[in-house]
Amino acid sequence: MSTAPVWSVDPRTGKPREQVASEAGEREVDEAVRAAWAVRGALADRGVRAALLRTAAELLDEAAEHVVEAADAETALGPVRLTGELARTTAQLRAFADVVDEGAFLDVRIDHADPDRTPPWPDLRRMKVPLGVVAVYSASNFPLAFSVPGGDTASALAAGCPVVVKAHPAHPATSELCASLLRRAAVRVGLPQEVVALVHGFDAGVALVRHPLVSAAGFTGSVRGGRALFDAAAARPVPIPFHGELGSLNPVVVTEAAAEERGEEIGAGLGASMTLGVGQFCTKPGFVLAPAGAGGDALVKALTAVVSDSEAGVMLDHRMRDAFVAGVAERAGLDGVGAPVTPGSGGEHTVSAGFLTVPAAALASSGPHDVLLEECFGPVTVVARYEDPSEIGAVLSRLPGNLTATLQLSVGEAAGAGAEGSAAALLLAELTGLAGRVLVDGWPTGVAVAPAQHHGGPYPATTSTSTSVGATAVERWLRPVTYQGTPEALLPEELRDGGGGVVRRVDGRLECPSPPLP
Fold first, then answer.
1. Which end of the chain has a smaller Cβ tally under 10 Å, C or N?
2. Which parts of 175-270 are beta strand (E)?
3. Which residues neighbour 116 within 8 Å (Cβ) at sequence distance 6 or greater?
4. Quick check: 17 and 9 in contact, CB under 8 A?
5. Which secondary structure element, helix H or strand E, spans residue 354, and what is its range?
6. Pairing relation of β-strands 242-245 and 380-386?
């Protein structure tokens, strides 16, 4: 049994605040997973699942002051940012409750027997069912929305899967508080509290992904850590789905016409986006292709002003701070790299924002500048200046997969974008191959929790094609099953001829429950 203490640490001082738990060993992980597995049947009722999600949201709202206080003490993200994140978290829980009520995520399809077909069709009824126990690995930069009560947990519970969460070491006290609220919500709606469990420690995370009763995993974090867990999930005797969000550069392409038309506006918007939250958003624009002419100069000038005016900030923990300082020093030391505003240490416990510039031609082929095409977590971005538009495609072809990609156009380019073979259309097509969310004339920080949202992208942005934000995130924790020739009394309610109150496709025709869905 592991007895290593888990401490809550103040990132503003680097000093321990309190011991909140002990690291879990293999025995504790095994007990948590087996307890979750034993109660998975309790989540079979969709009505109870929806009630659990709404009750969890209510309890988090009621405890908002304590939750925000705990999270701020461990992350230094500030009450304003954390109050907004909590609102997003509870809205997300309620949104998944609505998804459960609607039932369309079950993808119910019924084909009645048809002996007149050649060959004849048997009676076939298909729906999606929960995978089982889901392991959730919390993110550092969103202690609520991507942590214990966040989207992975909410969507897994919505699918009918118990959850075992591996807490992030940057906010263990917040994790304990939120887990207790989720368990209290479970008891309040008549569910066993074991439908949500929490474990701490690096070894616990490894043991969790390897446990034979864990059926899937969701992860948000670094490429190194996520890839190690992904490989472990694939190497099991029975491999499991691993939905990991690992890292993203989030490239931005600024056309020459856009820079000439509104270079100052684009530079100011870029500065605000890349410094938001001390640059600790997974959607931070970390790489920008901008023209070398006067429009690009205006962009750089405005970016310089915004970044220079930003205050030094505290990162989530000192390990991340040290990695940021080392990372920007390595990049700034490369030949041909400029630093109009030098990023780096802002003090013993803080970092200062900045940005780097480099000729785009230096990135068109493999070389020592390749590190500029890798994410650097924190308040820094790289502006690559291109002399000719042909350099844009050369650099984009070398980028890894991303969560987002952004295109900044002029008014004229946007108006003519629909023309066949237009430059804007060609650029958009290139960016579509690089990212899961493509923006035009906007900034990627901020991910709306909406049904049409997609938060994912080609590797290494994510390890699957799924999203971790939005209604379709629930699909990660389900698998389809078809029942053939099964007596109606043995079928799940949603597959019976009576309807089950969900959207269904019956003999090829779409059926909605009555009254119609809003």
1. C
2. 196-199, 214-220, 242-245, 251-254
3. none
4. yes
5. strand 354-359
6. unpaired
State in Å, rounded, how far the first CA of the chain is from the last one: 52
Torsion 349-353-358-362 (CA) sign: positive
How far apart are alpha carbons 326 and 349 in whole angstroms?
A: 14
Catalogue the active-site residues: 245, 282
The H or E element that residue 351 is part of is strand 351-352
Q: Token digits for 484?
A: 């053939």
Q: What is the DSSP letter of 121?
A: B
pTM, full prediction: 0.94
Per-residue pLDDT of the chain (518 residues; tens, 9 = 90+): 447 999 999 999 999 999 999 999 999 999 999 999 999 999 999 999 999 999 999 999 999 999 999 999 999 999 999 999 999 999 999 999 999 999 999 999 999 999 999 999 999 999 999 999 999 999 999 999 999 999 999 999 999 999 999 999 999 999 999 999 999 999 999 999 999 999 999 999 999 999 999 999 999 999 999 999 999 999 999 999 999 999 999 999 999 999 999 999 999 999 999 999 999 999 999 999 999 999 999 999 999 999 999 999 999 999 999 999 999 999 999 999 999 999 999 888 999 999 999 999 999 999 999 999 999 999 999 999 999 999 999 999 999 999 999 999 999 988 876 666 688 999 999 999 999 999 999 999 989 999 999 999 999 999 999 999 999 999 999 999 999 999 999 999 999 998 778 999 999 999 888 654 44
Q: Which amino acid is at 185?
A: A
